[in-house]
Design a protein that fits this description.
Largest sheet: 7 strands, mixed
Shape: globular
Distance between the termini: 41 Å
Order of helices and strands: HEHEHEHEHEEHEHHH
CATH architecture of the largest domain: 3-Layer(aba) Sandwich
Number of strands: 7
Strand content: 5-15%
Structural class: alpha/beta
Length: 296
């Protein structure tokens, strides 16, 4: 018996061997990417390539698995690599302290990944990564906007072309269409409209990340807007991405949206028989519930 025996019970011996032989490239080691890496290593994926140029900032503590008070100022990929090795002694982890862009793409893809997880929030880098994966024929799973959302029940899994109510995803779609890519990218997204930021908190924001002058192009203050975030949304995005990716590696049916059927209403017992009008109301309600459960 080994530490990941429980996972092997579900995926089978051959499936677990497939995961052990797989290489996953995770680009972006923030709130989403860290949870992707955590889930993959705990499921038995044998080799992880972790890419991120950034160091841990105290403002990451509310949502990023790499962030604690003790890890502030440390490289995100180095912190995550150490964590992965603590979980699985035999896992091969290759941290790359790089910002993904056109100039570094070739070096990063020289690692020959079997699957790519896009956890980038920089639009230019994200679109380049997705286009590169499509051109290379490498399966890619992409995270859209988790910031500004709070409702975990609104998280969806679909092709990028099917996303809605996500301004970030809309821009990604438009930029990829300009490059001749209209579909074929699986993504995790939310159909919850982004919540408004608290004006007082937003106006008082000041970047306190260490060494921000050294990386001013990517610092908090260089962003057009800093999104509000809660701990569970990036985690749910990351874990869902990992699940979708593992299904891909195992050759299983893709993870798709599932609409939960409406629970049956429990009615208090009554000796009175329902009227004809009430029967019609109940029939209409049942039909409506069935219709909503079948909706995509």
């Amino acid at each position: 018996m080994h530490p990941f025996h429980r996972a092997e019970l579900l995926v089978g011996g051959a499936g677990f061997d497939q995961l052990q032989a797989s290489t996953a490239l995770i680009v972006g080691m923030g709130g989403v990417g860290g949870h992707v890496a955590e889930a993959l290593v705990r499921t038995g994926v044998g080799r992880l390539i972790l890419v991120d140029f950034d160091v841990v900032c105290i403002t990451n503590v509310n949502r990023q698995i790499v962030a604690t008070r003790r890890t502030v100022r440390k490289s995100k990929v180095q912190v995550m690599a150490e964590r992965c090795r603590d979980i699985a002694a035999k896992v091969k982890v290759e941290p790359m302290d790089l910002f993904y862009e056109a100039d570094t793409s070739e070096q990063i893809f020289a690692t020959n990944p079997d699957i790519v997880f896009d956890c980038i929030d920089n639009m230019t880098a994200k679109v380049h990564l997705l286009e590169t994966c499509v051109r290379r024929g490498t399966p890619v799973f992409s995270a859209m906007g988790a910031g500004g959302r709070m409702d975990p029940t609104r998280v969806r899994v679909s092709d990028l072309s099917e996303t809605r109510a996500d301004p970030f995803a809309r821009i990604v779609r438009d930029l990829l269409r300009q490059r001749g890519i209209g579909s074929g990218i699986r993504c995790v997204w939310s159909d919850e409209a982004p919540n408004d930021l608290d004006e007082a908190a937003e106006s008082s924001f000041r970047c306190i990340c260490p060494d921000k002058d050294l990386k001013s192009r990517h610092s908090c203050e260089s962003r057009h807007q800093v999104q509000g975030t809660v701990a569970w949304m990036p985690a749910i995005f990351g874990l869902t991405l990992a699940a979708a990716g593992v299904h891909q590696l195992l050759g299983r049916a893709p993870v798709e949206d599932r609409v939960t059927r409406a629970p049956k209403q429990r009615m208090a017992p009554s000796s009175r028989k329902p009227s004809r009008a009430r029967k019609k109301e109940l029939a209409a309600a049942a039909e409506a519930a069935q219709g909503s459960s079948d909706a995509s």
